[in-house]
Amino acid sequence: MTSMNRRRIAVAPTSRPAMFDAMMQAVIDAGGEPAPIAEASALMWADPAAAAEFPGVVEAAPELEWVQLPYAGIENFADQLDPSKTWTCGKGVYAEPVAEHIIALTLAGFRHLHTSIPARSWPKQQGRNLLGANVTVIGGGGITESLLTLLEPWRKKVTVVRRSATPLEGAVRTVTMDDVTSAIAHADVVVIAAALTDETRGMVDADFLRAMNDDAWLINVARGGLIVTDDLVDALTEGVIAGAGLDVTDPEPLPHGHPLWEIENCIITPHVGNTPEMGLPLIAERVRRNVERWIAEEPLVGLVDVEAGY
Amino acid sequence: MTSMNRRRIAVAPTSRPAMFDAMMQAVIDAGGEPAPIAEASALMWADPAAAAEFPGVVEAAPELEWVQLPYAGIENFADQLDPSKTWTCGKGVYAEPVAEHIIALTLAGFRHLHTSIPARSWPKQQGRNLLGANVTVIGGGGITESLLTLLEPWRKKVTVVRRSATPLEGAVRTVTMDDVTSAIAHADVVVIAAALTDETRGMVDADFLRAMNDDAWLINVARGGLIVTDDLVDALTEGVIAGAGLDVTDPEPLPHGHPLWEIENCIITPHVGNTPEMGLPLIAERVRRNVERWIAEEPLVGLVDVEAGY
């Protein structure tokens, strides 16, 4: 294949126009040439929901060597992963906005925005710093990696609790779930960023909350089911912990009239760690970088392990 | 002077016990030996308000070679700056919490906490990122430097408007006040972090606000007088800008009944960018580092320019 051929990139389908346009622009910005699928060396798939159309498009693409999928989770495309091609996805791209939201919720709690925002006269002066704080994160995936990166200059001391004790770069300590109690005991903020599994469901219960510092905040950006909601209501009501910032709840959406709405030091956001609007420029940037690398014959980012299927 | 003598450090006065204790601990942690003032090679001054006692203490200190003052502003001690000694202060120490508060207020606005926090049922999903955003900062001092440091991994594009066009590290563009209009035109957030002077008083007026993007946030952590409050009320009411995050106001404290309290997209905090509780560990850390450097005969941090008086 000549280097000219590598420049020919198809973007399809057009069913999600904003994503199509953003990916097309990224291809052009990277020095690619938008090409019909029949002549394209690579395909940027522009609609995560349109998996049903995918086989037909790929069949009409004899030159195709590389496929970029739009989301981090590719379960809809798992049956299509032809090992003779290179596959990339949005792996790691969407973790960054969620990590940013962890920081937004933590700062909101530490800086008492939950009391200042509803105030109608000069509130009491109070607050504390995330700078230099002890942060414990449950979960060692992409969100935690992004959080460690974003907080790199903040002199924080991060303990990570994950399945394996393999250290994460930037963490002062990495432990397994066996040591969770000691890992949360001295934290100023405990962040839940783990997948919801049979093992993790309800892990934040009354015992977990009692093991936390009484001036610590709990932040959940993962799934509501990791927390026993009734135990959290009790802990907040009784001052067992200082507050909670929840981007996910159980039940979700949290119904009107639920007791959590009335607890001042519980900050609730409607599952907006990563919104479609935030994700679009991020996946477009992934496309731009990968097309540049593809043209330069450099290794692509976000490679799918075809055998493992993710 | 022998290296043993250099270890002898006095902390005085005792009128502010929390600061005295924190500084004393920092001296010990750094390997210093708490010493009476008559035998001390260095003095850590532990009460910014007690300038009147200062000359008497220094007179009783024949061995004194270095004085560490507690605050960044040293105007109370300006008459005491004897050029035969080395003087250091809290320069740069307190900027970091204020920079953190800029990030707290910006994220609160971008992540719609001003609508989520008062909500009593699942709010609308909305939000945008500080990650990768265009940030314009008015002022090129320590707060701006700290902000650039804290946001270093955030892929942001920062334009700095300052008196001289000398570039700040980490900024993509540094301009003077002559170019302020173009500097704020494409900003997602405009941060006011300048000193209040005759030149800057009221600089954020109706024209300034109209020159901003209508989806941009205005953040003020400097002094309320930099903004014409009535013009800001109008701009927020008429949708000229997206919102404002104010840690300082004019008048301050903002009186109950002031129209700003009723504007949903105006987030007001009670001048808590840096609180005494936040500052104490920071000045203690400065003391610890400087005592280490003093003992090791390395250059001290936060040197006062005795001729200039700051």
Overview of this protein structure:
- Two copies of one chain form a homodimer.
- In chain A, strands 8-7-6-9-10-11-12 form a seven-stranded parallel sheet. In chain A, strands 2-1-3-4-5 form a five-stranded parallel sheet.
- The first copy, chain A, has helices at 3-6, 17-29, 54-59, 95-110, 113-116, 142-150, 180-185, 206-211, 229-237, 276-295, and strands at 8-12, 33-34, 42-45, 66-68, 86-88, 134-138, 157-161, 173-175, 189-192, 217-220, 243-246, 266-268.
- In chain A, helix 2 packs parallel to helix 10 and helix 4 crosses helix 6 (142-150).
- Chain A folds into two domains: 3-93 and 276-295, NAD(P)-binding Rossmann-like Domain (Rossmann fold, 3-Layer(aba) Sandwich); 95-268, 3-Layer(aba) Sandwich (Rossmann fold), CATH 3.40.50.720.
- In chain A, strand 1, helix 2 and strand 2 form a beta-alpha-beta unit.
- The first copy, chain A, has 310 residues and is α/β, with parallel strands linked by helices.
- Chain A is elongated.
